[in-house]
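Dear colleague,

Thank you for sharing your sequence with our group. We've completed the structure prediction you requested, and as agreed, I am returning the results in plain text so they can be pasted directly into your records. Please verify that the sequence below matches your submission; if there's any discrepancy, let me know and we will rerun it promptly.
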Amino acid sequence: MNEVLIMLDDVNLVTLWGAQNENFELIKRGFPKLRLVARGNELKVLGEELEQQRFEQVFQRILQHIDQFQSLNTNALEDLVGVQGTKIERKEPADGAAFKGEPIVYGPNGIIVRARTVNQRRMVDSIVKNDILFAIGPAGTGKTYTAVALAVRALRNKEIKRIILTRPAVEAGENLGFLPGDLKEKVDPYLRPLYDALDDMIPSDKLKDYLERRVIEVAPLAFMRGRTLDNCFVILDEAQNATDMQLKMFLTRMGPTAKFIVTGDLTQIDLPKKTQSGLATAVKLLDTIEGIEIIHLSGADVVRHKLVRRILEAYGDI
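Please find the predicted structure tokens below.
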């Protein structure tokens, strides 16, 4: 068994190995044929020579990434480790999170946003061919995150001039008065998940500029009424909480050069009882129209914590 010694004198070991050595464990899982021993500023690599050479190439890319971005998150590390990393090592369903697609966008601090399941990749491919895409599935399947990434990519590629992100503020409705602040402060909590996705993909100063100049607009669904949305990428999130008339209103705002993505979870409808979800109706009525695709994501597409999938399975149809 060969031994290679790598000195780590100029590396921040906390950044490299991660909290509680999470990064180190991920790297080890990416190279099961090697034995890695880290002590202080030394790393011993024991195993066959060819595998050691492959490790050194990958490890050098990891160090270069840290030097460039001064950080190393799990998403970036999995990409750097490659196909032997944790996404492949975990035994997932064939159509689930074991899939690893090409990057959609590169975010700040080395974040790489990519399709991580087959159905997320279908979303990426579909929006090229279709102008309206419905992505329907349970919590944690990355439908909103992937949709926002596609919108940011289109903006960067100058395929569109604006991004518009919207949600129905169901709990707000006509009862916003009891919340403190102006209208923006009242509705922002309902739109927070969209801001969170944008934070991962656009540097904070540039995002602030985009929002101020309305290159990116985040607004409640009610604000869409009466508008024509053209030369833009529009995402309606949480569409299961839109009524039939609201969803019809939204879809008919579409201009000649717009792209629309509608996301939602039909198992989490917050509308008042006896009120039909517009998303459920739209899926039935629009399924056969050319230029519209409906993609159903499932528990196999969950890319949050591994417990999320088990929680969804435990709740079943409740």
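Summary note from our side: The first strand starts at residue 2 and ends at 7.

Kind regards,
the structure core
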